[in-house]
Amino acid sequence: MSEKVRYFEGYLSPVEEELAFVERCRVNGVKQIILDWDDTIGKTVGIFKKQMDRCYDFLAERAPILSREEWRERIVFHNNNSFETHGVNPIRWSVVMDLVQRETGLDKKNTRGAVKILGHIYKTRQEFLPGAEEGLQFLVKTGMPIGIGTHANWDWTRFKYNCLKMHRYVPWDDVYIFDENGHKTPKEWDKGIRKYFKVRPERCMLVGDSPRSDINPAIEIGVRAENCVWITGNGTELWSIHQQAVPAEVRRMSNINGLRNLGREVI
């Protein structure tokens, strides 16, 4: 926990954990649990890193006009900038490599090859993060309504949904997809919570790995900080553009299986 809260440290059976979590939700007015997807439920950063590393290797071998590190620096720079203008739309890799081509004189064949390697990100089967499946099983047993908020596009989200057999935990109709060309801003979170999940922000528990895209926008529109859970320790490195400070009241845990311990606050 990130702040000093009353916290029962004795043994609880699985059923007692479920009951305590539901009571914690009742005490805090929570009617809806909303989870981020990427790097909260499923491993995503690792997929990006693997394909980006393969891209750097490809360019260093096929186009040694720059070193591998120099290719990496240029692609990372333009990827960070294109995220601001194109969100998570896969088309941004074409934009990135077009800019790199203009700067370096990279030939069109190798430019297309790099885009193809980066595009494989969206065809790679996703795996659960440690503790994620156990956390989802726990939430289902509590009977609390569960939803997902993601700004990956429909095709990629459906692909990941099928890979992880998420129908066991969250119905497809309870997956809210933000505009892939935009960002998970306060305005977009407000739209998703109020219009899609049909609940007031102060009635939500928000769980995500990004202070910029999940935690802080949710707090800004009225989700209570103590009902926000920041997933901080999945063995992946948080993309620098997502790093922001969060209020002390925000709960921190390494993975969503830690949600089972929130009920200890009300025992």
List keywords for this structure.
six-stranded parallel sheet, hydrolase, 6 strands, 267 residues
Structure description:
This protein has 267 residues and is of the alpha/beta class. The chain folds into two domains: 14-43 and 126-266, Rossmann fold (3-Layer(aba) Sandwich); 45-123. It is built from nine helices and six strands. It has helices spanning 14-27, 45-62, 68-86, 92-104, 108-119, 132-142, 154-163, 186-196, 211-220, and strands at residues 32-36, 146-150, 175-177, 204-208, 228-231, 251-253. A six-stranded parallel sheet has the order 3-2-1-4-5-6, with helices on one face. Strand 4 (204-208), helix 9 and strand 5 (228-231) form a beta-alpha-beta unit. Helix 1 packs across helix 6 (132-142), helix 2 (45-62) runs antiparallel to helix 5 and helix 4 (92-104) runs antiparallel to helix 5. The longest helix has 19 residues, at 68-86. The chain starts with 13 loop residues before the first helix and ends in a 14-residue tail after the last strand. The mean pLDDT is 92. InterPro entries: HAD-like_hydrolase (IPR051400), HAD-like_sf (IPR036412), HAD_sf (IPR023214), PGP-like_dom2 (IPR023198). This is HAD family hydrolase. One of its GO terms (molecular function) is phosphatase activity. Keywords: Hydrolase, Magnesium, Metal-binding.
